[in-house]
Amino acid sequence: MLSAPSLTRSLSAISDTPDLPAEAGKTTFRTLDSQVGGHAGVLSNEDGSLIIKPALPAERHFYELLAQSQMKEDDENDGVDVSVDKDPLRILASLTPKFLGTLRLEGATPSGTDVDINSIASGSATIVPPPKEKLKMSTLLLRNNSIVLENISGTFSKPNIIDIKLGTILYDDEASEEKKARMTKTAMNTTSFETGVRLTGFQVYDYTKNIAINTPKSYGKSISVADLPEGIRRFFPVSSSVGIPQGQGLPRDILLRALRGILHDIKTIHLALSTIELRMVGGSLLIVYEADWEVARSAIEAVSQPYATIVPASFSTSTSHPSGVAREGREISKDLHETGEIGQDDSDVVVGVEKGEEDDDNVSSEEEDDEENDSPSAYAVKLIDFAHTKLTPGEGPDLGVLKGIETVIRLLEGRIAELGSVSDSSPSSSS
């Protein structure tokens, strides 16, 4: 059965979307082939727009908290622009994958399972095994509710994807003493304890081989702190080809602009988490960027008028841009693309997204969302994996997670410095 407290609108949208039409009846779910981190058992729907992920109760609960905080804001501020301090959970919700509900899969769930979309939308999903195939999925998927999320990489043509594990502490309070000792040793023997990050895994598209090349978890566990910059170079390669896509990497000018936008979004996440009292154990930073030269360039150049405004010590949100700050790479200002700077001390300000004066005030938020969803993205940055995340009022933010994000910021700033400053009109050159 599918349940999603306070999420009636989102669930109805599943059957209304052109990608999953109600009249289609059934769709096929298969193993997610772009998964670079986390546990096995994650499924994707046929067009790749949704994922079905096995989830423990704590992760479901956290996603429900985020969704409820966002819907409460929508109800309270129907059609009204607001620019006052908001519940940080509402901001955090915009920095995580969209949560569409929970799906309980009962009985055998073979690979390539047919799911009745009408049943999902009405709240009673059924699993219909395809004929002549009785392959079993993970027992975790069978035992627990699974959460239905947007697939962040699903809108990309050739996604480069990295999962960066955050935090210096890899166990939660409920862990046994044996597990605490084991996970402490793991943190000490990898880059986690010193830096708050571990490169869990990543994939980079290779034009010559016409496939995404995967770098497994073993790489991130084996490297030292001194090797982290090299890991970032491997994930953000610059193409040695001029004019024709070959091998791995984007042209230098496009890669730089994507990196600066990604850096901006990560700084926004850092600021958001610095205001929230929680503990996040096993959480990750997911970064996706477009490897297709033409698509990436078009997405970058589609960013026209600056949307950035400096908002001291607060977040600025608008119902015309309901997901608040850092709403995809399309809303990064031109200044950020060119310099990577926001002009003031990052600890005191955040770049808020506001509607430009030149926009048509009569355009509804739904129409704007549809237009944005139809447009290609150059990159996306999200927080994921909340199986061991909980709110901790009175205990302050998670300093280990913040340390990890600060490490990622320094690594990206280093990569940008290596690539140098190239104007938007400059031709690409290899490193």
Describe the structure in your own words:
It is an enzyme of class 2 (transferase). Its EC number is 2.7.-.-. Belongs to the inositol phosphokinase (IPK) family. Residues 356-374 have a biased composition (Acidic residues). This protein has helices spanning 8-16, 57-76, 88-93, 117-122, 139-143, 177-189, 192-195, 217-222, 228-235, 252-273, 293-301, 334-339, 365-374, 399-419, and strands spanning 2-3, 26-31, 43-45, 50-54, 99-104, 113-116, 127-128, 145-150, 159-166, 197-206, 211-215, 278-281, 284-290, 308-312, 349-353, 379-384, 388-391. By secondary structure, it is of the alpha+beta class. It folds into two domains: 2-154, no CATH class; 157-419, Inositol polyphosphate kinase (D-amino Acid Aminotransferase, Chain A, domain 1, 2-Layer Sandwich), CATH 3.30.470.160. The strands form four sheets. An eight-stranded antiparallel β-sheet has the order 1-5-8-4-3-2-6-7. A hairpin with a 4-residue loop joins strand 10 (197-206) and strand 11.
